[in-house]
Amino acid sequence: MNRKALFIRPDTLWRSRPQAFARIKGSALYPNLTGTVRFYEHPYGVVVVTEVEGLPNPESRCSSPIFALHIHQGSSCTREVGDPFADSGMHYNPQNCLHPYHAGDLPPLFGANGYAFSACLTNRFSLDEIIGRTVILHSSLDDFSTQPSGNSGTKIACGEIVRRLRWR
Question: Residue 1 — very low, low, confident or very high, per pLDDT cuts 50/70/90?
Answer without folding.
Answer: very low
